[in-house]
Amino acid sequence: MYLGAFLAPAAVLLVAKGDGGQIAEAADVAPVAAPAPEAVPAPAQPCCVEVVAAPGVPTAHLTAEAPAEEASSVELVSASRWRVVSRTLPAGVAPERGLQVRTILAARSISAIFPEINEIGGVRSDALRWHPNGLALDVMIPNNSSAEGIALGNAIVAYVLQNADRFGIQDAIWRGVYYTPNGARSGGYGHYDHVHITTTGGGYPTGNELYFR
Q: What InterPro entries does this protein map onto (predicted)?
């Protein structure tokens, strides 16, 4: 068996001027500090299925490949006890119709890592192409003006930024700050009630994709 640690990454957001967000009075908002990306091995690809890999689960979990006859992976629970769990990501709260594969991967991963999120917007009409083309998500933050809500939005930005390569993150926006994998800049970007995330898409799904943790 091969053991691989899967980390629960932290993330960043995306900017699109045509995307509506609440504009707060304060313009100076400290950017979220994004940790350096960590290499996460891609899961093995099953036969005859296009696989879209997803980020790891929290660091407390270790995963290992199951025997060939098993379809699930094996999670190490203790030094002497194992249990079989699925590595595939189920659909989350985001409507996936019209989303491209990397956007779906980001949405499912956010739902899995942040169960507090109960609404993620996807395809909608907009002056810019990101939402209409399935390239953008609006992760709605509960109690967005509270300390807890702000911390949750910050954590989501950090998570997507740390997984920028895996999710194909182009940018993200949260509380007046525009984030990219190369840095952030503050001022006038709105998005105080949700984290806006833009991906590079990766094409529309064919129906044969599997999305992995």
A: ARB_07466-like_C
Q: In degrees rounded to 5, what are phi and psi of residue 206?
A: -95, -15
pTM of whole model > 0.85? no
Scan for tokens 């990306």, then name that residue. Answer: 37
140: its two tokens: 């709605």
Strand 82-85 versus strand 120-121 pairing type:
unpaired
> 20-67 pLDDT, tens per residue?
554 444 445 567 765 554 544 444 444 433 445 444 433 333 222 333
Nearest of 27, 11, 34 to residue 190 by alpha carbon? 27
Distance of CA 11 to the CA centre of its chain: 7
Where in the chain are the domains? Answer: 9-41+91-207
Tell me the three state secondary structure of residue 151: helix
* Helix, coil or strand: residue 211: strand
Phi-psi region of 12 (alpha: psi -120 to 50; beta: other; left: phi over 0): beta
CA distance 43 to 190: 37
3-state secondary structure 62-131: EEECCCCCCCCEEEECCCCCEEEECCECCCCCCCCCCCCHHHHHHHHHHHHHCCCCCCEECCCCCCCCCC
